[in-house]
Amino acid sequence: MQKIKTPKLTVVGAGPGDAELITLKGIKVLESANVVLYDALVNEELLQYTKNAEVIFVGKRSGCHAYTQDQINELIVVMANRHGHVVRLKGGDPFIFGRGSEEIDYVEKYGLETDIVPGISSALGVPASAGISLTQRRIADSFWVITGTTSNHELSKDIHLASKSAATVVILMGMHKLQEIIAIYKENRTDDLPIAIIQNGTKATEQKVVGTIHTIAQLVADHKIESPAIIVIGEVVRNNSKLISYFKAHFDDEFILQNLDLE
Q1: What was the pLDDT predicted at 237?
Q2: Which residues are catalytic?
Q3: Most distant CA pair in the chain: distance in Å?
Q4: Number of CB atoms found within 10 A of residue 6's CB
Q5: What are the C-alpha distances in Å from 171 to residues 36, 84, 91, 100, 140?
Q6: N or C: which end of the chain has fewer CB within 10 A?
């Protein structure tokens, strides 16, 4: 007698790009899946953990959608009722501009069980992997994470507010609005803040340019930096991670390290 499979959705964060940055729990969930629906920013190396699951690409890139969001929602319900456990594999963390909550709300109306496995958001993981600390003593006490492009395809109004703050600002999905972002900072600031743009963060194909509000546009053009990329603006971009690495490599005394006041 064939065992009846309970219709279930688990939304899993795949991390910022490097396949090793998914959580152990995320891997275990992939191994238990009957169906995996994965996004464009997911590292396809992770699909090796899906075993006998049916794997479907449902990714969306600028102007090119394999499925609309409504179609993805419907597909989850159909596949769960037909096969059992559906894993929705999303880049980064599914609740940071990932529409994970929308999908959960939708399928719960149809009686599906749901679960969530958080992931490392690119907003946190990519700057860290590039040696940028989003907060730093005496430099930045907080940080903003903002979408560069809203659901209306407009620049988020929060960037106007963030540009006036001493906080570090991380902008996702902002490359197509870079000139607008630069203009806002020039309007609201007299200082020429440092800015980093990191494409394909944490992956072997990562590229990074570091400049200032006044120089970054030309650097992006010179190095042909494109989406997917994140923008980090603030004094923390001038961090001392390389100096910290040097001292850690040359000094074993933890007391010396602490009192150098580098971190």
Answers
A1: 95
A2: 39, 60, 173
A3: 73
A4: 10
A5: 29, 37, 16, 19, 16
A6: N
